[in-house]
């Protein structure tokens, strides 16, 4: 298996785990791997809280070790800004709406022989 294939498999597994995690918290996944010319949004979810509907756009980063830092360290301020722009484009194209939107980062660490670790940071775009 080539390095690219291994990374794609790892990334897909991380996104699957992140989706399961969010679903377990009461989120409903409404889109995955949405792409447009400007980029991609890994997961888009909706949650109802206190009578309000929130759409959450998630960047998922997965790593198999900490040699290059934690997965969340890979989500830069520039990436968060771009996700905000992509979120606006997704909303415009789909006609979806909510009372609020949020950009989250989800880091998934899948180390061989251990249980996957998920770190979820809400509101990464300040």
TrEMBL record:
Protein's organism: Microlunatus endophyticus
Similarity section: Belongs to the UPF0102 family.
InterPro entries membership: Restrct_endonuc-II-like, tRNA_endonuc-like_dom_sf, UPF0102_YraN-like
Pfam families membership: UPF0102
Protein known as: UPF0102 protein GCM10011575_26720
One term of GO molecular function: nucleic acid binding
């Amino acid at each position: 298996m080539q390095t690219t294939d291994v990374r794609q498999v790892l990334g897909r597994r991380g996104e699957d785990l992140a989706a399961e995690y969010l679903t377990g918290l009461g989120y409903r996944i409404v889109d995955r791997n949405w792409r447009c010319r400007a980029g991609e949004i890994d997961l888009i979810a909706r949650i109802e809280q206190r009578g309000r509907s929130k759409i959450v756009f998630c960047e998922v980063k997965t790593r198999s070790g900490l040699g290059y830092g934690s997965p969340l360290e890979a989500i830069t301020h520039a990436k968060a800004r771009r996700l905000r722009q992509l979120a606006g484009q997704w909303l415009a194209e789909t006609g979806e709406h909510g009372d609020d939107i949020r950009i989250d980062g989800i880091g998934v660490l899948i180390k061989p022989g251990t249980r996957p670790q998920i770190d979820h940071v809400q509101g990464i775009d300040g």
